[in-house]
Amino acid sequence: MQVIFLGLPGAGKGTQAASITDEFHIPHIATGDIFRAAIKEKTMLGEEVKSYLDQGLLVPDELTIKIVRERLLQPDAAHGFLLDGFPRTIAQAEALDKMLEEERLPLTNVLYLEVSEEELHHRLTGRRVCSKCGASYHVTLNPPKVQDVCDRCGSPLIQREDDRPEAVRVRLRENLGRTGDLAKYYDDRGLLTRIKGENPIGDVYEDIRQALRRQAE
Ligand code: ADP
Ligand code: ADP
Ligand code: ZN
């Protein structure tokens, strides 16, 4: 099962991916997570991408595509994966098509989580993430059981640098048109499933599951 989560920042991709990968046993490949881990570990990649992430700007295509190509060649991705946050541009989508053609791994489904801009702004500015496992929470919409502590692993929650209002505005602007273009790209290829991302987390999960089950039949 080769699946893409398409959606603007804050649409709920990370939240849903955590449950999907547990249930369907496929690796969750999130370019944002890869970049943040590299920044934390101060690797060469981290140095290269830090300023883009801090500002909410897209990392250049060439570098992003190279990172994803390397990740998809890892053995755990040979029998399926869930891509979250990639592709974000048409050039990335075309590069992905080529990679998957070479690997003979056709895309199964592109799930488009649709959420209004106003709601996204609210979600992103109130988001808190686990400093260790990356799990996503919200101060009011999806609070942890104990304030500022991760339900899954007990580590402290933090606010991402790029979830400050100024960076959120840049990120939404960077991604709005591009996400629409990508939805059209995959719709034209008959791969797109639209999901009502504004529904409660459990309902969104059910819709995603159904879409994936239908595909598997
Ligand atoms: P969100 O969870 O808010 O959608 P991500 O964690 O996916 O954000 O991405 C965080 C940042 O990482 C982006 O603002 C961008 O700088 C960089 N990034 C992630 N994926 C890509 C991509 N496919 N192309 C370019 N930059 C990316
Ligand atoms: P993305 O990975 O697409 O950037 P996240 O999964 O991190 O998005 O979710 C963004 C924020 O919105 C988080 O604070 C999360 O707890 C919250 N959230 C996710 N899905 C929903 C939902 N269906 N309803 C309300 N809040 C949600
Ligand atoms: Zn955690």
The average pLDDT is: 95
DSSP E strands, number: 8
Question: Uncertain runs with pLDDT below 50, 5 residues or more?
Answer: none
> By CATH's scheme, which homologous superfamily applies?
P-loop containing nucleotide triphosphate hydrolases
N-to-C order of helices and strands: EHEHHHEHEHEEEHEH
Fold and architecture overview:
The protein is of the alpha/beta class. It has a single domain (2-129, 164-216), classed as P-loop containing nucleotide triphosphate hydrolases (Rossmann fold), CATH 3.40.50. The chain is 50% helix and 15% strand. Strands 2-3-1-4-8 form a 5-stranded parallel sheet, sandwiched between helices. It has a 3-stranded antiparallel sheet with strand order 6-5-7. A hairpin with a 5-residue loop joins strand 5 and strand 6. The longest helix has 24 residues, at 165-188. The mean pLDDT is 95. One adenosine-5'-diphosphate binds at residues 7, 9-15, 123, 127, 136-138, 141-142, 200-201, 204.
